Amino acid sequence: MRKYLDKNKKLLIYFPLIVYWIILFISTSLPLESVPSVGLSDKLMHTVAYTGLGILLYLTLMFQNKVEMLKTSPAIFTFLIGMIYAGIDELHQLLIPGRKCDFIDILADTLGIVVGLILVIIFTRIFLPDRLEKA
Known about the structure:
Layout: H1 2-7, H2 9-29, H3 42-63, H4 68-72, H5 74-92, H6 103-127
């Protein structure tokens, strides 16, 4: 499985992260009244959205070969990048009608990153044992 992912990482790892992040950014850039309700609490939606981001970002850092430090410690850098993006995203929402910057949302986003990290680390240890992360 590792060789297959390595060979097809642009299509199976990088592309999904780019698309997901664009969708995440667009969805947080819409005025609140334009966003359809899905029946979940706002904080749960933040956590779920950032769980996906954490999974995809970790895999991207794990499979990239350009920056060794990112490859050897993908969990640390996924957490840091995810947390920084959560803060920037909340600040950017100050400019969006009906939205606000909420520190609790940043915490929910960070929780999502951590949940994503836990899930993807368990997955990689089971299915990609020769690509264990060192952080």
